[in-house]
């Protein structure tokens, strides 16, 4: 599915079917690239895309995420995800051929999490917030985009579970550069 990044709806509801994910396992398992996605092509230049995310967590690794997509082997996602220990947390994955996986911080069960992706030029920043006002730095990275246009958007996944529903609201697209990725603003 595609969407207009400059004209976003007030809320996006996505459902992840069972055993869906976007992950290229560095351990050698077959890539899984079947998660429910809603993507659009942003305008050129720096921007910030953010949303408050609520997930009806049921299974391990159930998540709602913001996604920066170049192609099947080049992308990054910032997730609100359930850990194997049952904790909910901010998690980031960057894929340049193979995926990595990095946990950031836990979020009290039942609370939403705000996620933000920022294009700073040829590089990207991920931030997460428990209140939508103070942003925790999660990751700074480059994807090495080539000729393919970058798309950004929303993902719902349930890699080992029976599916989950994800709500994205308080969605904001700001067509300007993030001033300081480490300031908390």
From TrEMBL:
Domain of life: Bacteria
Record-linked SUPFAM superfamilies: Concanavalin A-like lectins/glucanases (SSF49899)
InterPro entries: ConA-like_dom_sf, DUF1349
Protein name per UniProt: DUF1349 domain-containing protein
Organism: Phytohabitans rumicis
């Amino acid at each position: 599915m595609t969407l207009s990044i400059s004209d976003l709806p007030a809320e996006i509801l996505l459902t992840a079917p069972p055993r869906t994910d976007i992950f290229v396992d560095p351990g050698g398992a077959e890539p899984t690239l079947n998660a429910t996605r809603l993507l659009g092509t942003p305008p050129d230049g720096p921007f910030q895309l953010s949303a408050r995310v609520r997930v009806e967590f049921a299974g391990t690794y159930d998540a709602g995420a913001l996604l920066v997509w170049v192609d099947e082997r080049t992308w990054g996602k910032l997730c609100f995800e359930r850990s194997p220990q049952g904790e909910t947390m901010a998690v980031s994955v960057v894929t340049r051929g193979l995926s990595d996986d990095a946990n950031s911080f836990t979020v009290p069960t039942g609370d939403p999490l705000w996620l933000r992706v920022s294009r700073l030029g040829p590089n990207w920043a991920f931030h997460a917030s428990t209140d939508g006002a103070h942003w925790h730095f999660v990751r700074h990275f480059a994807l090495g985009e080539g000729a393919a246009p970058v798309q950004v958007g929303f993902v719902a996944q349930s890699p080992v579970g029976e599916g989950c529903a994800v709500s994205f609201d308080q969605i904001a697209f700001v067509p300007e550069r993030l001033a300081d990725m480490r300031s908390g603003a």
